[in-house]
Amino acid sequence: MTWTHRQTENADVYFLANTSDEKQTLSLSFRVGKGAPELWDPVSGEMRALPQFTKEAGRIRVPLEFLPRQSYLVAFRKEGSASAPASRVNFPAFETFQNLGSTWKVTLDPQRGGPGEVTFDPLIDFTKHADDRIKYYSGTAIYRSTFQFNSKTRERLFLNLGGFSDIARVKLNGQDMGVVWSIPGRIEITKSLKRGANALEIAVTNTWNNRLLGDSKLPLEKRHTWTSIDAGIKPNTQLLPSGLIGPVTLEKLQP
User: Fold this and answer.
1) Does the chain have fewer CB atoms within 10 Å around its N or its C terminus?
2) Do β-strands 59-66 and 24-30 pair in parallel, antiparallel, or remain unpaired?
3) What is the pLDDT of residues 110-133, one digit of tens each?
4) Which residues have a Cβ under 8 Å from the Cβ of 118 and sit 6 or more positions away?
5) Quick check: helix, strand or coil at residue 127?
6) Which residue segments constitute the domains of the chain, with CATH numbers given?
């Protein structure tokens, strides 16, 4: 864990980062005597109150949770406050509301060596596929699916992509929901979700490591990539997980 502290006219702000590949649950004591803690999420832009904290000898102790490689800001404002917390705990849990199924139409650009449109049922890591055009594909793959949503719930709902590599843009019913690039692969879709049929599109882009490795096995005239320098691809270079692996689910906050 690493951290730094900055004091402004109106707040004490701490930047905290989990530098490990493991989830961490900590109880941290901040050298602040006044104010209530808030969490500022640099990925989503969300600012919310942290309702669980205790004051002790001129300091404030806050229980915090960090996913692997996650970072955020904890602020103590002298005036004003963030939006009310979603629950009575600092980090409410999510529960699966609906599984969105396993059948997807996937478009892999032929100009980048892909086969065009194919069907994935179930979702699979590109590197596990028998077709070399998919196994070594690098670029953007567009996943499309239609799912039924029949609930009358008015709760906030989130899309969780499950496993994916390396970055994804989500569109629901033609509306851009934003980009997902870090753990957890979760994004709120409440405003665009509707009762009945919903059209979901997820564009997942990976690095070109796998295409370079695949091209190294082909004659020059059949390759899709070219570099002016040594890209470091060797016969024993490992393929990197790619594509949308899932499972893709709808989630809601536990009460």
Assistant:
1) C
2) antiparallel
3) 999 999 999 999 999 999 999 999
4) 105, 106, 108, 134
5) helix
6) 2-83 (2.60.40.1180), 97-253 (2.60.120.260)
